[in-house]
From TrEMBL:
Subunit record text: Homodimer.
Membrane spanning residue stretches: none
Alphabetical list of CDD domains matching this protein: KAS_III (cd00830)
Organism: Salegentibacter echinorum
Gene symbol of the encoding locus: fabH
GO-annotated cellular components: cytoplasm
Protein name stated in the entry: Beta-ketoacyl-[acyl-carrier-protein] synthase III
Region (ACP-binding) location: 264-268
Residues annotated as catalytic: C115, H263, N293
Amino acid sequence: MYQSKIAGVGKYVPENVVTNNDLAEMMDTNDAWIQERTGIKERRHIKDGDGNSTAIMGVKAAKIALERAKVKKDDIDLIVFATLSPDYYFPGCGVQVQEMLDIKTCPALDVRNQCSGFIYGLSTADQFIKTGMYKNILVIGSENHSGGLDFTTRGRSVSVIFGDGAGAVVLTRSDNKEQGILSTHLHSEGKHALELSLKGPSTEHWVPEIIAENPQGDDIPYYPYMNGQFVFKNAVVRFSEVIMEGLKANNLEVKDIDMLIPHQANLRISQFIQQKFKLSNEQVYNNIQKYGNTTAASIPIALCEAWENDKIKAGDKVVLAAFGSGFTWASAVISW
C-alpha cells in the first residue's frame, strides 16, 4: 500500500465582495441579524462579465496547486471535481477542467456530496493512490452559489449564507508512511435528505413543469430549502462523532490536533465544536466571516489559506471535518 500526501494547495475567490449591507438592500435583513446567526460579514459572488464559472474557478485554483506541487499538468492521472453547482446539468466539471488545462486524455469524475464533497473526493483520490493505480491526482471543490439563490426576503434564510469560490489540492504518491493522509471516514443518513435540499430542476421537476405549476413564482422548488435548526442540531453531533472516529483510528487524542479545519457552514457550529473539544483559537481555522459557506470549496479554501498564513507546518496533525446535505458527513486525518 502506498501513502498519499497533499503536495500543493490553491484557492480562488471572485473579486466581487458582497457585504451584509449589500444584501440588506435586496431583502429584509441587516448586518447584525446575519452575523448573529451565521458569523458571516461578507462573501464573494461571481459578477456578470468577470469570466468566472464553477469550472473556470476550479481551473484557477488548480493551476496554483499544480505550481506549488511542482507537478506538470500532463502528469495528472485523475481529476476529481466536487460541486453541487456544475456549469451544465451534464457533462460534469471534471472533463471541463481536463480540457481547460489542456491535460492529455485522463479520467475525470464528479462528486455530488455537497458540503462533504471535498472530503469524499479526497478519500476517493486517496484510495486510488494507496492501491497504486494512480500517482498524481487533482482534487477540486468549486461552487457558483450566487447563480441559483433567491435574493428576496422569501429566500433570505438561505441566500445570506452562501458564497462562490474554489479550492484545489494535488495529491501525490509518497513512500513516507509518517506523512500524508492517515485515514478518511465517510457517512450518510438519507432519511433526512429533504431537510437540506434543492428539488429541481430534476427529472421530477423540469423547468417548464415548474413554471406551469407556479405561475406567480411562489414556492419555487428550484431554490434551496434548509431546515436550519434541524441541520444545526444534527451537524454538531455528527461533527463530533466523525472527528473522534478519525482520532481513534490513528491512536490520537483531541490534544494532538494541531489544526482543525471544519466545513465553513456556520461559525456557530464551528464555535460549538471548538468549545466542546476545548480547542484554542490557534487550533481551529475559520474564514466563513469573509467568504460565507462555499460548500464543497470551503475546506480546500480554508486549508489553502491556513497554509498560506503559516498556520500549518510540516508534521502537524491536521483534521478536516464536514457535514451537510444528504445528510452526509466525513473527516480526514492528515500528517502534514
